[in-house]
Each structure stands twice: as structure tokens, then as C-alpha cells.
Amino acid sequence: MIEIFELSKDFGDKTVLKRLDVVFENGKTTVVLGRSGTGKSVLLKLILRLMPLDSGRILVDGIDTTDFSESQMMDIRRRMGMLFQGSALFDSMTVFENVAYSLREHTKMSEMDIRLRVEEKLSFVEMSGTEALLPSELSGGMQKRIALARAMVTEPDYIFFDEPTTGLDPITAQTINELIKRVQEHTGSTVIVVTHDLESASFVAQKIVLLKEGEIYFEGTWDEFEQSQLEFVRTFRSGGKAV
Amino acid sequence: MKIYDILIETKAGEFLTHLYKYAMFLGTVIKAAARGPYYFNEVLEQLYQIGYRSLSIVSLTGIFTGMVMAFQTGMEMSRFGAKSYIGTVVALSLVRELGPVLTALVVAGRVGAGITAELGSMKVTDQIDAMRAMATDPYKKLVLTRIVALLIMMPLLVAVADVLGILGGLLIATANLNVGYELYKTTVLEALLMDDLVSGLIKPVVFAGLIGTIGCFLGMSTTGGTKGVGSSTTLSVVLSSISIFVFNFVMTKIFFLISGPL
Ligand SMILES: Nc1ncnc2c1ncn2[C@@H]1O[C@H](COP(=O)(O)OP(=O)(O)O)[C@@H](O)[C@H]1O
Ligand SMILES: [Mg+2]
After folding, report:
1. pTM of this prediction exceeds 0.95
2. CB distance B132–A77 less than 8 Å?
3. What is the residue range of B29's domain?
4. Are residues B96 and B216 in the same domain?
5. A39 Cβ inside 6 Å of ligand 1
């Protein structure tokens, strides 16, 4: 469980998160919705502490990580996997090396076992046979799938997806949605998906959180989201068209 | 925050802010060096990338510098009947100044710029954050390994440039100046004192430190997409080159003070 209390983050004069309170429950897929630039990526980066927070507290399974140093955070990060918005695959490494990265860094697994595990994850994301390719030789959708395989290769307790379907054609987007659902069902991991894609949210979400101006505007199930008459929920649902 | 805002508004303040960030960066690197894990394989890879692949351009720099030195000074010295000292002049100027400085400039352009561009593009495409998210310290894995490889390789590259430069000088001495091999060899060996060899090795280590830390610092602090990578890379070459010249002058002064007037 990830519990966030009164989390605030500014960049210079610009307030991105304003005393945000939110809980991500174990074994569930929570979708964080919000317009571009509302701080969805920042929220994920703060949970991983890839940037410092200004104030507030972040608890991971009851452990308060707020004041953790970079090296203390390393142990927390090992239990998390993240799919970055732009995939962020290591472009100097092959697909195999990318997916094997965490196993080689942090486990004593033999090369044989690593090979088996990587092949298993690649087949899960339906990318078998691409081991020797470089990321630059793959399309955007393929890169996302490899990045997904990389994020889940250590079978972490938490998996975060930053805009997994943005910029993909609808069909590729749907295959990614199905993968996200399968990952969650398969591993029982706690999943956070950050997106502004409602199609994707309706498909994977067990809980919806809608951010507006650095605060939580709405929190509930997808059905509740669909039926909500709150003004910004209606605007968001209709894609900004007058309602 | 307030002081910082005031500082950043003036040119001098901006400079101090960057200097402060560079000092913080050095602190992070030292902390990363203090405790494992260490990435020995990555260092080996970097030794190859940095060292082996700079060998040809450094060799050419050495040979041609030695030849042109011998030619220019040799011609001038013949007028005073002093051309037999050509070996002395070539050896001293190469080992003390030209070898280290020119090699460092070449390495700053080839390796330093490459490091900044590589780390900078990793930074702007979130690969650095991805590495941290996968519980690897990029200061240990990327920064330290490159700096260590530079520190090891630079003295070797300078030694290659020195030796080839002196041989280049020999070529001109025998072919154009009628100074025999034996005489050249004797003057070279007599000219070079232990002090010169020591200073000739300390300088490259200092230059390697400058190129490596400046290159990595600018790479790791790159923002602003591909355009940002371009400007960091240019800045890396400019700052490394300037600091090489400045530190070279300062070190030459210090070595003269230590070894006394000749
Ligand atoms: N490292 C940073 N430095 C300065 N501003 C940032 C940084 N990261 C994000 N921001 C700003 O914070 C806001 C939220 O960004 P982000 O979390 O990426 O939005 P999104 O919800 O689209 O993912 C944006 O206005 C962005 O410009
Ligand atoms: Mg984002």
C-alpha cells in the first residue's frame, strides 16, 4: 500500500501538487487521470523519489520513506517497476540487455536463468525474437512493450505506468491495455496507471483518481466516475466539449 | 530560495551558482566512490572506448607536433649554429608542455564531448531516471567509471604522444637538419630530468580530472531536449579547453617554483 499525505511540490513559482492525499491499495489498479501538465508524472517520480518533495509524507507498506536518503531509497525502488512516458529504454543496449538489466544488477541469478526469465517476459509482452535488436530499431508501441517487460522482470510489488497508451494507434493502445490488465491479474502487483486516455482508464481501472490543479478532484470506481455529475468530471469525460 | 533568486539574477551570481553546483557534483562523485558496488567491467569498456579509440588521433598529434617543432626551431637554431641542441628543445617542450596540453585538448574534443553528449541524451530521455528507478546509482555506474577510465588512460596517451613526438623530431633532425641519430638521442636523454617526467605525468592526471568531471557534470545536468544536449556538448569542450590552459599555466609555475630556477 502506498499512502500519500499532504504531498506538495513546486517548481519555482509554479505549484504542481498541493497538499495531495491519496492511497494506492495493494493488489489493485488505480488510474490517475488529469490534464497534461497537472503533475501526474511528477507524482510517480516523487513516489520513486527521483526528485525531492517539498512537504508531505509518503509511506510504502507502512514505512515512511519521506526522509530516506538516495541509498535508502534504492531498497524501496527494487520493489517497484516503472514504465516511463517515453519508454526510456537504454539505447546503447539490446532488447535483451535492457530487460535483463535489473536481474544482472541485483540478483545472483545465473546467465541461464536470466535468459529463461527474459524470454518468459518477452513472450508475455509478445515480443519474442527481438532480443538482439536495439531500441532504435523498434516502433513506439514495441518500445513500450519492451519497457513493460523490463519493468516487470523482477516481479516487483508495485508497477507504475506513465501514459502507457499515449501516442499509440488505437489497436496498439488496446494491446497495451490488455497487457496491463494481465500483468495485474498475473502478478497481483499494485498497479498505478497515469493517463489522460479514458478508453484505457475504463479498461484497466479498479479505482479512478482525477487530479485538478494539484489536488484530488474526484476519487471512486469507474462506474462512479461515469455517473458523476461534478462539473470537471463531466468536462473531462466529454473531452472538453460543452456539457 | 530567496538568496538563490537574487544570486541567479547577476552574471557573477550565475557563475557562482554553477560553480556551487559543480562542487556539489564533485561531492556526489566522491561519495559514490567511497562505497561499492563498483562497475569494473564498465571501467574496462570505458578504457577501451576512451583510450584505445583515441590512440590514432593522439599519435598523429604527437608525431606532427614533434616534426613541426623540430623543423621550426631547427631552422632558427641553425642560424646560430645551435642546431645540435634540437633534441633538447623538442624533448623539453613536448614532455613539459605540448604533449600534455595538446593531448588533453584532443581528448576534451573527442572524449569529453562524447561523454557529455551521451550522458546528456540519457538525461533528457529519462534513461538516467530509469536507471535510478531500477535501483542503480548512475554516479557509480556512468560517472565514476568514465572519470576513472580517463584518469588511467590520459597519462598513457600523453606518454604515447611524447614518445611519438620525439621520434617525429628525430625524423626531421636526421632528414632535414643533418643532426645524427646518436647526437639526437644523447641530447634528448640528457635534457629530460626526473622532474620533467613527474610533471609530465601529473599534468595529464589533472587534465583527465578536469575533462571527466566537467564532461559528466554538464551531461548529468542537461535539460531542454536535443537542443540542450547540443549546447551542453559545446560548453563541455569550451570549458574543458579553457580550464586545461589555465591549469597548465598554474602547474607550470608551481613546478618551476618547486624545482628552482634552471
Ligand atoms: N524537472 C522539472 N523541472 C521543472 N518543472 C517541471 C519538472 N518536471 C515537471 N515540471 C512541471 O510540472 C508540471 C507537471 O508536469 P508533469 O507531471 O510532467 O505533468 P503530466 O501530468 O502531464 O505528467 C508541468 O507544468 C511541468 O512543466
Ligand atoms: Mg506526464
Report:
1. no
2. yes
3. 1-35
4. yes
5. yes
Q: Tens digit of pLDDT for each residue in B91-124?
A: 999 999 999 999 999 999 999 999 999 999 999 9
Q: How far is B252 from chain A (nearest CA, A)?
A: 40
To test the pocket of ligand 1, the residue of A32, A41, A44, A210 to mutate (highest count of ligand atoms within 8 Å of its CB) is A41
Alpha-carbon distance of A219 to A31, in angstroms, equals: 10
Residue B233, burial from CB neighbour count under 10 angstroms (0-12, 13-18, 19+): buried
Contact B130/A at CB under 8 A: yes
Collapsing DSSP states into helix, strand and coil, what is residue B36?
coil
Q: How confident is the model at residue A221 (pLDDT cuts 50, 70, 90)?
A: very high
Residue B220: partners with Cβ closer than 8 Å, 6 or more residues away: B25, B119, B123, B128, B138, B143
∠ CA A176-A44-A91 to the nearest 5 degrees?
Answer: 60
B127 and B63 in a common domain: yes
Whether the CB of B133 is below 8 Å from some CB of chain A: the reply is: yes
Q: Fill in the amino acid letter for B176.
A: N
Closest CA relative to residue A169, chosen from A202, A204, A140: A140
